[in-house]
Amino acid sequence: MLCGQPVVLQIPEGDNRQRKVCTGCDHIHYENPKNVVGCLLEWRGKVLLCKRAIEPQLGYWTLPAGFMENEESTLEGAAREAYEEATAQCDDLRLFAVYNLPRISQVYLMFYGRLRDGFAEANEETLEVGLFDESEIPWDELAFPVVTETLTRFYEMRDQRDRRVYSADILSKPGAAMDVVRHPD
Ligand SMILES: [Zn+2]
C-alpha cells in the first residue's frame, strides 16, 4: 500500500503467521492490537458515565475511553478522552485495570481518578453525561462488556483502598452474556 499495489496474504520468511504483503514492493503490513485508554471518574461517591452519540452502541452509556494517540502516554490519553467525551478534568489518575479483548484485538487500560469540581458536559461525541450512584448505574444500557466489567470490579473493590491493578480477558460481545476470565490478583 506504500506503492499502491494490491496486497496478498502470505507467511513471510521467518514468520509464522499470515501477513498482508504488497505484491509491488514486498512491504509487510503488520497489524497488531490497538490500545484503548479510558477512565472511571468519581465525584462524591458517584461515577461519571457518557451516553454515546456515535456508533457503535449509539445511545448506550459508557466510561470515557478511546484509542491512544501517537506520542502520548496512557495516562495522558485517558485524561484526553475524559475531556473530549465529557469536558471533564481529572485528578489523581492511576491505573486501575488492564483488559484483553482478543476477539477484537484491543487492549484496554482503564484508569481511576477523581472528577475535578464535579463538572462534566456533553459534546459532539456524547448525547448526555451523568453522575451515577451504584444503585443508579444503568446496567442494561451499558455500551460494552469492558465497561460492565470495569464498573463491576470497581464496586466490588471500592472499599479496599489498595492500589492493585486488575486484569482480565473479556470474551463477550456487546449485548451478549458476560464472558470474562479474571486473572488472579
Ligand atoms: Zn508496495
UniProtKB/TrEMBL annotation:
<dbReference type="InterPro" id="IPR000086">
    <property type="entry name" value="NUDIX_hydrolase_dom"/>
</dbReference>
<protein>
    <recommendedName>
        <fullName>Nudix hydrolase domain-containing protein</fullName>
    </recommendedName>
</protein>
<dbReference type="Pfam" id="PF00293">
    <property type="entry name" value="NUDIX"/>
</dbReference>
<dbReference type="InterPro" id="IPR015797">
    <property type="entry name" value="NUDIX_hydrolase-like_dom_sf"/>
</dbReference>
<feature type="domain" description="Nudix hydrolase">
    <location>
        <begin position="32"/>
        <end position="155"/>
    </location>
</feature>
<dbReference type="InterPro" id="IPR029401">
    <property type="entry name" value="Nudix_N"/>
</dbReference>
<dbReference type="GO" id="GO:0003824">
    <property type="term" value="F:catalytic activity"/>
</dbReference>
<dbReference type="Pfam" id="PF14803">
    <property type="entry name" value="Zn_ribbon_Nudix"/>
</dbReference>
